[in-house]
Write a structure and sequence with these properties.
This protein is α+β, with helices and mostly antiparallel strands. The chain is built from 5 helices and 5 strands; from the N terminus they run E-H-H-H-E-E-E-E-H-H. The strands form 2 sheets. The chain has a 3-stranded antiparallel beta sheet with strand order 1-5-2. Strands 3-4 form a two-stranded antiparallel sheet.
Length: 194
């Protein structure tokens, strides 16, 4: 059931009320009345008064629960304009237009949370550039090159391991130390002669 409330000749510009009306349209009536209570604009003050009137009409005249009401329609129409003059310098005058509004709020019975549910569309993915695809192909080519290099290194390691290894015995180590000491002594003799 739809219940309406109308305020006519409200001394607020229609444009300013419409900005606030677009924020609350389709949402829970009681929640939006509380939100408008703290909105700083003059249009929100006027719209809140009409919204509270519509909620009261639904409760008193039709015995509806205010918690189940949602705002189905808000219409802001232009009222008559009052034209005034403001004196300016050198005998001139500027026209001042004082605009008025007719505010209509329609609330209907329905779950207030239904109006707040998400719209169900998903966000679009980011567009891919042609450059990114090329980078992907380059990365695949690099992976192939790295795999080939790894195979070559493994083959080289395998060939070096196959080389014959000399056995180390005590005699060979003794010979190596004797050679090293003889070289050191010959170097010392050369240094003394100089």
């Amino acid at each position: 059931m739809e219940v309406r409330a109308v305020a006519k000749y409200v001394r607020v510009q229609p444009r300013k009320v419409r900005q606030v009306a677009n924020e609350v349209r389709g949402k829970s009536a009681v929640q939006m009345a509380n939100v408008l209570r703290f909105h700083p604009s003059k249009g929100a003050f006027a719209l809140r008064k009409v919204l509270i009137s519509a909620i009261a009409n639904a409760e008193e005249n039709h015995n509806l629960n205010p918690g189940n009401l949602r705002i189905s329609e808000i219409r802001i129409d232009e009222g008559p304009k009052m034209k005034r003059m403001q004196a300016r310098a050198m005998g001139r005058g500027n026209r001042i237009v004082k605009r008025t509004s007719h505010i209509t709020v329609v609330v209907e019975e329905g779950n207030g949370e239904e109006a707040v549910k998400p719209h169900g569309t998903k966000a679009k993915g980011r567009p891919t550039l042609a450059g990114k695809k090329a980078k992907g192909k380059k990365a695949e080519a690099k992976k192939e090159v790295v795999e080939e290099v790894k195979e070559e290194v493994v083959e080289e390691v395998a060939t070096t391991e196959e080389a014959p290894v000399e056995e180390v015995t005590e005699e060979t180590t003794a010979e190596a130390t004797a050679e090293a000491t003889s070289e050191e002594s010959s170097e010392e003799d050369k240094a003394d002669k100089e």
